[in-house]
Amino acid sequence: MNLFFDEDTGTGLPKAVKLLRLPSVEHVAYPGPAGPLPKGTSDPDWIEFAGSHGYLALSQNRKILESDAERQAVIDAQAGIVFVGTGQERSWLVMRLLLNQWLWLLETHELVERPFAFHLLPRRRPVRLL
Question: Does the model's pTM come out above 0.85?
Answer without folding.
Answer: yes
